[in-house]
From TrEMBL:
First and last residue of the signal peptide: none
Species this protein is from: Promicromonospora umidemergens
Protein name per the record: Spore wall synthesis complex protein
Membrane-crossing residue ranges in chain numbering: 37-58, 64-82
Compositionally biased tracts (Basic and acidic residues): 127-141
Region (Disordered): 87-141
Record keywords: Membrane, Transmembrane, Transmembrane helix
Domain of life: Bacteria
Amino acid sequence: MPLSEYEQRVLEQMERALTSDDPRLANTLQSTGRGNALRYVLSGAGVVVGLLLLVVGAATSQTWLGAIGFVLMFAGVVFAFLGPRKKRQDGPVGVVGEDGTVQPPEGRARKPRKRQGGGRSGGFLARLEERWENRRNQGGQ
């Protein structure tokens, strides 16, 4: 059943909002998975051949053949679940300053991280505790 004009307009608005809010996610969702099919076929073939080697190695009491089969099966599964690596950008990654800290190269400024909790260092649990206390204090007044 085709979408109505109103539904198509709403869908287009949602797509534009997604693209403007999170362009990386939009690019990931729009990319085609043509390479994934070949990846899964190769992984499946590796697992099947590895399983055959494992069975033949066990049947003929050749431990080394079974070990090779197991490694091949494991490699096939890892290859299937690991995504393709992204190409690295050429150029400087950062510049070491006089104080020993790594600064981003010119033209690639990074936003400083905000510290929560009035400058005190704390992890995830400290932030959760602080938020919990804020809620209790606001609710008790």
